[in-house]
Design goal:
The chain is of the alpha/beta class and about 325 residues long. It contains 11 helices and 8 strands. It has 3 domains: about 30 residues; about 160 residues, Rossmann fold, CATH 3.40.50.1980; about 110 residues, Nitrogenase molybdenum iron protein domain (Rossmann fold), CATH 3.40.50. Helix 9 links the parallel strand 7 and strand 8. The protein starts with a helix and ends with a helix.
Length: about 325
């Protein structure tokens, strides 16, 4: 009986040692795996589609948090320091990057895409009537990923940087890049076709995020506030939006998930029209993440809502 118990204890001991060994091996593999940090969902989607499982890709924005106001925690700062590559959006979108001393390779993606001027002189004056925003010192609109051509440029740049980090995976990254670009081109063609014949041409949104999209497809956009969705709109701006909904026979006005929808929904009630979510894709919600929605998925959801609001054929 004693010998039997000794055998049992020995087996338990060896199993425990083996499991501990395997856990250490797994931790070691994770610690040696290359890590890429991305600051917006669009950049995260590009990177994940290119790297497959060859890199750990960390999206530093918690799902459901606005890219405009996010500040990384000390834990996230440490993760950034331990990464092989940081890809941030730029053009003033992430105030936390100002003066941050990166100790790793960093790509400011706004330097590799086509940016559009943020506001006219008149637009600046209108926003000063509301509130001064932290984006005022910036020259360009930071929401460039809503132009598919910029997404293609960003995809090529991400692939280039990843190939430099891991040349042995060059063929994989190139193939994945080409596949992703083909899907983006198909998405662009869907937008062109769907928006080619619409009764209306004006989108009204809660903040000025859709300029790249509307410019690309020959539409016009008006917003309740400026570049920052957290800005509280003035009474003058609310009256202007209410007037535009009547003048242009607007049926739907749009807001995003990450900020208060109170004012937009109040305007919708007072004018007898609908209010709906339009996703600017700087980040996504926790529900969208759980559903594993991609950039393409959400852009197609946006397209459906836009075509319905503009009465496109």
């Amino acid at each position: 009986m004693k010998n039997f118990l000794k055998v049992i204890f020995a087996l338990i001991f060896f199993v425990a040692v083996f499991e501990l060994f395997m856990m250490n091996q797994e931790k070691s593999a994770q610690s040696t795996k290359h890590r890429v940090i991305t600051s917006t969902f669009a950049l995260y989607d590009i990177t994940k589609n290119i790297v497959g499982d060859t890199f750990e890709v960390i999206h530093i924005l918690p799902f459901g948090v606005s890219a405009h106001s996010f500040e990384p925690t000390p834990k996230l700062m440490a993760a950034i320091e331990r990464s092989d590559l940081v890809i941030y959006s730029g053009a003033g979108l992430e105030p936390w990057t100002d003066g941050f001393a990166f100790n790793t390779k960093v790509i400011n993606m706004s330097e590799h895409v086509h940016l559009k001027e943020m506001l006219s002189k008149k637009g600046h004056e209108e926003e000063r009537d509301e509130h001064k925003e932290h984006h005022h010192h910036e020259r360009y609109d930071p929401h460039y990923w809503l132009d598919v051509e910029n997404m293609i440029l960003a995809t090529k740049r991400v692939a280039k940087e990843l190939i430099e980090l891991s040349p042995k995976n060059s063929a994989l990254y190139t193939a994945n890049m080409n596949s992703y670009i083909s899907r983006l081109q198909a998405l662009d063609n869907e937008y062109k076709s769907a928006l080619s014949s619409c009764k209306k041409d004006m989108l009204i949104t809660n903040h000025r995020a859709f300029g790249y999209l509307t410019t690309k497809y020959g539409l016009h956009t008006e917003s309740l506030s400026g570049m920052s969705p957290e800005t509280e709109p003035s009474a003058k701006s609310i009256k202007r939006i209410m007037r535009l909904t009547q003048e242009h026979n607007i049926s739907t006005i749009f807001f995003e998930n990450f900020v208060s929808d109170r004012t937009i929904k109040s305007i919708a009630r007072d004018t007898g029209i609908q209010a709906d979510v339009l996703q600017p894709l700087g980040n996504i919600t926790a529900d969208e993440a759980k559903a594993k929605l991609s950039y393409e998925d959400i852009m197609r959801k946006n397209l459906y809502k836009i075509t319905k609001a503009l009465e496109c054929r």
